[in-house]
């Protein structure tokens, strides 16, 4: 039985997961530089050990109110084809291992912007984990509902 590891996190109480192969690191950061005229999904830029990282606000991508950037915000730093990018999330979870044969398509009840960002779901205990499409999540040119 094939298994896959997912790094989990929460946004507005919903449990999301990304394959660990996409994750460089997770951290809390509090000093962001705003980017005038940037798409609404860009929460800001920050310097991580000499590298400038764009922070994509996953709340905005999901059609929710943006993060308050007045204190520490949780970041999931993703390995990109060109350069790392960060997803701003509400809370970091654990790395979990899931059986690939338990993967299911997104439920019909999943609507709105989330529908475009979710590849499928896994049952994790009494919760549903939404497997996030990394490429869609960091697409700052995609339209937003907010």
Automatic annotation (TrEMBL):
<dbReference type="Pfam" id="PF01584">
    <property type="entry name" value="CheW"/>
</dbReference>
<dbReference type="InterPro" id="IPR036061">
    <property type="entry name" value="CheW-like_dom_sf"/>
</dbReference>
<feature type="domain" description="CheW-like">
    <location>
        <begin position="3"/>
        <end position="143"/>
    </location>
</feature>
<dbReference type="InterPro" id="IPR002545">
    <property type="entry name" value="CheW-lke_dom"/>
</dbReference>
<protein>
    <submittedName>
        <fullName>Chemotaxis protein CheW</fullName>
    </submittedName>
</protein>
<dbReference type="InterPro" id="IPR039315">
    <property type="entry name" value="CheW"/>
</dbReference>
């Amino acid at each position: 039985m094939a298994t896959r590891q997912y790094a989990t996190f929460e946004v507005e109480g919903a449990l999301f997961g990304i394959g660990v192969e996409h994750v460089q690191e997770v951290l809390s950061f509090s000093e962001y530089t705003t980017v005038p005229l940037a798409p609404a999904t860009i929460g800001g830029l920050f310097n991580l050990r000499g590298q400038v990282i764009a922070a994509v606000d996953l709340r905005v991508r999901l059609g929710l109110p943006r993060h308050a950037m007045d204190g520490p915000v949780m970041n999931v730093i993703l390995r990109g084809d060109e350069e790392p990018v960060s997803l701003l999330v509400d809370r970091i979870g654990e790395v979990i291992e899931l059986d690939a044969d338990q993967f299911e398509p997104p439920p019909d009840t999943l609507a709105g912007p989330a529908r475009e960002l979710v590849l499928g779901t896994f049952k994790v205990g009494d919760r549903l984990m939404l497997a996030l499409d990394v490429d869609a999540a960091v697409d700052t040119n995609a339209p937003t509902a907010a």
